[in-house]
């Protein structure tokens, strides 16, 4: 069964090579369909992996491949899956398939589809590799593989409407450049931030290796920081934490995110919000907590404080946004703040909540970016003033789906967005015994206020965009509601958002044993 992981990584890589290598005479629509087929095969492999997983031993790393790769520094090709990584593998395979399926609808419009499909498949391989790597250097390499493809996705296929509207919060142009200036600037800012963060993270990995003589994550987790001096643990926790915080993103290291989302095409925004951000938070759980636990206890209060600021900042920023995709992007800053707050509690409840919130955020925000992209495609703009109201009347199905995504994102009980953030708050109420409970109680109250503000800006958005009289419909030559491909693309996200909201144990029963092992409870 170890071959499953190899196939899981190899299929999208081979698929990317096949799609990019297709003769120019092959229509772009055929390239998109081949990409969707490759994504479907990868998703099936992920589902087979989940079916063969031993849920009675979710804390154990399964489907292990562990061979020497670079003997000089003891780097091993160490892959595997446990109860923490399996949900992320399934989420990645699902969102990548849905993005590839979506390209079959937009292939005639975007141009150079085979290049976009090839990059999405390459992104999928890098994202999956990050979640199954159990060697620090292999983790780092997969962590970096996604940067160049995402740069091209944003810089080449970025939404031209965003070029006109620029990066300003009010939707006015701030670039003053040519047609590609805005999206290339956003792509370059993204890669510079993440490369710098990754370089600092690598220094932390090297410091751990200098103290322990190994890069093996399972060995380091079993040692629980033994063999690493306290000062070195703190330095490593800061360095590794900074690198992961940029990708998460943690306030104030988030500034690359809104522009990247605003400029990215729809599939780029979905993968960026749905999976790439989780690579950072996953690294906190997989590496930061178990490898340098004493250093993590020192840094955790600062991480919790910045995460709470991010929750409030994201909500307040959303209240003043007038561009749809930027509003959803800023909402991610707040939601990921809850994930990081849960991790910073250093408790099984908080960390479980963080993982669940990450999965829920991938489903819900992925849906919201699909819907935001569809709205912009139909109207030629994402500016809320230009969109006007009356989306219910103009496109009732699309409007109804958008309202569903909004209420799921604000944390309505019974939907997936509720449980993760609630567990993160519970973790802050009763943090690890080594942490100051009074401090975390204050942060819990502030984060709760952020949740209230989140509900406020989404309700304002729904009232402003969906309700009222339709003033723009008569000016549109064709008003298209939801298409068949869009139904097939969005329906799994809607269904899973409801299913995990009603039965959160589907994820929590899987993650709890592994989390309890990692945090030493």
Short description:
With 521 residues, the protein is mainly α. The protein contains 22 helices and 2 strands.
Description:
This protein is mainly alpha-helical and 521 residues long. It has one domain (3-170, 179-518). Helix content is 74%, strand content 3%. The chain has a two-stranded antiparallel ribbon. Helix 5 runs antiparallel to helix 8 (181-212) and helix 19 (416-429) packs parallel to helix 21.
Jot down its keywords.
two-stranded antiparallel ribbon; single chain; 22 helices; 521 residues; mainly alpha; 2 strands
| Structural class based on helices, strands and sheet pairing | mainly alpha
Gap from first CA to last CA: 31 Å
- Per DSSP, the total helix count is 22
Question: If strands are numbered along the chain, what order do they take across the biggest sheet?
Answer: 1-2
Low-confidence segments = 162-179
Pattern of helices and strands: HHEEHHHHHHHHHHHHHHHHHHHH
Mean pLDDT: 86
Percentage of β-strand residues: under 5%
For the largest beta-sheet, the strand count, sense and barrel status come to: 2 strands, antiparallel
Number of domains: 1
How many runs of DSSP E, i.e. beta strands? 2
Question: What percent of residues adopt helix (DSSP H or I)?
Answer: over 70%
Structural Rg: 22 Å
Shape: globular
């Amino acid at each position: 069964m170890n071959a499953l992981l190899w196939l899981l990584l190899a299929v999208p890589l081979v698929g990317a090579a096949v799609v990019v290598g297709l003769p120019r005479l092959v229509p772009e629509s055929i390239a998109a369909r081949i990409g969707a087929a490759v994504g479907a095969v990868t998703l099936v492999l992920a589902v087979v992996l989940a079916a063969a997983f031993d849920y009675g031993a979710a804390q154990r790393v399964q489907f292990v491949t562990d061979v020497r790769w670079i003997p000089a520094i003891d780097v091993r090709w160490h892959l595997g899956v446990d109860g923490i990584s399996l949900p992320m593998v399934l989420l990645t395979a699902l969102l990548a398939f849905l993005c590839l399926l979506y390209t079959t609808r937009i292939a005639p419009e975007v141009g150079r589809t085979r290049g976009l499909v090839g990059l999405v498949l390459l992104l999928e391989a890098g994202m999956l590799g990050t979640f199954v790597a159990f060697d620090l250097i292999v983790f780092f390499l997969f962590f970096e593989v996604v940067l160049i493809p995402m740069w091209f996705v944003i810089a080449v296929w970025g939404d031209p409407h965003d070029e006109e509207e620029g990066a300003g919060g009010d939707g006015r142009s701030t670039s003053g450049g040519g047609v590609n200036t805005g999206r290339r600037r956003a792509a370059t800012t993204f890669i510079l931030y993440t490369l710098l963060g990754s370089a600092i993270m690598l220094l932390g990995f090297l410091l751990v290796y200098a103290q322990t003589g190994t890069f093996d994550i399972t060995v380091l987790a079993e040692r629980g920081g033994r063999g690493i001096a306290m000062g070195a643990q703190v330095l490593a926790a800061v360095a590794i934490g900074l690198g992961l915080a940029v990708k998460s993103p943690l306030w104030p290291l988030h500034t690359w995110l809104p522009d990247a989302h605003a400029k990215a095409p729809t599939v780029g925004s979905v993968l960026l919000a749905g999976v790439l951000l989780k690579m950072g938070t996953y690294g906190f759980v997989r590496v930061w907590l178990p490898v340098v636990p004493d250093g993590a206890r020192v840094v955790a209060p600062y991480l919790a404080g910045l995460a709470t600021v991010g929750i409030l900042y994201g909500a307040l920023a959303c209240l003043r946004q007038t561009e749809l995709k930027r509003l959803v992007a800023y909402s991610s800053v707040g939601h990921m703040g809850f994930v990081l707050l849960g991790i910073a509690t250093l408790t099984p409840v908080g960390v479980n909540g963080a993982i669940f919130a990450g999965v829920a955020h991938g489903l819900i925000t992925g849906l919201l970016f699909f819907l935001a992209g569809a709205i912009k495609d139909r109207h030629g703009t994402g500016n809320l003033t230009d969109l006007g109201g009356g989306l219910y009347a103009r496109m009732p199905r699309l409007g109804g789906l958008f309202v569903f995504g909004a209420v799921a994102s604000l944390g309505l009980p019974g939907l997936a967005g509720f449980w993760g953030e609630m567990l993160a708050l519970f973790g802050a109420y009763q943090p690890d015994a080594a942490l100051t409970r009074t401090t975390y109680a204050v942060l819990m109250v502030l984060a709760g206020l952020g949740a209230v503000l989140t509900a406020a800006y989404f309700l304002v958005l729904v009232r402003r965009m969906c309700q009222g009289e339709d003033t723009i419909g008569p000016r549109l030559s064709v008003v298209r509601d939801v298409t068949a491909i869009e139904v097939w693309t969005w329906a799994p996200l809607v269904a899973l958002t409801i299913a995990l909201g009603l039965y959160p144990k589907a994820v929590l029963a899987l993650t709890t044993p592994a989390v309890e092992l990692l945090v030493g409870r």
